[in-house]
Amino acid sequence: MDRHKVMSQSIIEKYRLDEAKELLTTIESQILPIIKQEKLWGRGDDIELLVPALTKSMTMLRGICVLCEKGFPDSALILARNIYEQRTICAYILNNDDVHHEELLNKYFEDYELKRAKYIFKQSKRYDDIDNYKEAEGLIEKYKEKYGKKLAEYWWADNKPFSQIAEKVMEVDDMHKGLYNNMHTEYELACLATHASCFGNRMNIGTTHHGIDIRARDTGHEEALFLAISSLIPLVGCTYECLRVDVTFVLEQLNKLGILYLKMLLKQTNTD
Q: In which region does residue 45 sit, left (phi positive, over 0), alpha (psi from -120 to 50) or beta (all else)?
């Protein structure tokens, strides 16, 4: 057996990746039959918010497991960032009172058409597609008339930047502030790994080497796995509650993995 296969097997065992993948299969088997029976699109409710966020996060976690198994913790952390964002956005909407909750949901769903129009607007302009350009421009103008000229990334959340949305979520549950701080610290690290910068290009998660290092590594995978699993837990819990599915076993197993990765993370932090 070559050294790469030996390393992959060691990572699988150390980080219990098979357990994570089995849990994903269990979640799929429990929720997909219900989703197929329900009319999802156009409901405008919490289920329509949560199910796509959860299923996309599950796909991301499968990708994270593959990247970790092959020894690429930096790339895995970049994907984990998206799961944290999914969890934070859903929590922000769900935590609001009834009146504002409905308003946020409606705007969130409307953002689908706005983002689609912005994409078409930019691409049709690039390729001189006048008809699609004018149609998209007209739709964007309607949104500006309805909601104001400034339609930033999170315009539906009163144009708050993501950092403020995350802070609002953390304020609601002070009991878990320590956990949220650890999650957000990993999120900030993921942002550094994502964007092209001098610092980001010299990051090497899982090693003390600074500079160019393109080797696969069997360390550092707790960063992505902790952020991904801890972010997935509330998405699973809220979705199961809305679908009226017993979540006891799945949450118990996810929490065990989350605690394992957090302990690894804290041990590594203290060692550094």
A: beta
Alpha carbon distance 122, 29 (integer Å): 40
| DSSP structural state of residue 244 | T
Q: Where are the domains positioned within the chain? A: 3-97+158-224+239-256
DSSP H helices, 127-220, are 130-147, 162-172, 177-194, 198-201
Residue 267, CA distances (Å) to 205, 257, 272 in order: 15, 15, 9
Residue 41 region, left (φ>0) first, then alpha (ψ -120 to 50), else beta? beta
pLDDT, one tens digit per residue, over 93-150 is 999 877 789 999 999 999 999 999 999 999 999 999 999 999 999 999 999 999 988 8
User: Do residues 216 and 7 touch, judged by C-beta distance below 8 A?
Assistant: yes
Q: Is 219 exposed, middle or buried (0-12, 13-18, 19+ CB in 10 A)?
A: middle
Token pair for 189: 């690290």
User: Residue for token digits 């999650």?
Assistant: 183
The span from the CA of 196 to the CA of 32, in Å, is 37
For residue 17, with 0-12 CB atoms within 10 Å meaning exposed, 13-18 middle and 19 or more buried, which class applies?
buried
Q: How many Cα neighbours within 13 Å face the side chain of 248? A: 1
Phi, psi angles (nearest 5°) of residue 221 = -75, -15
46-70 and 98-126 are packed helices; what angle lies between their axes, rounded to 10 degrees? Answer: 60
In contact, 50 and 225? CB cutoff 8 Å: no
Residue % of the chain over a pLDDT of 90: 77
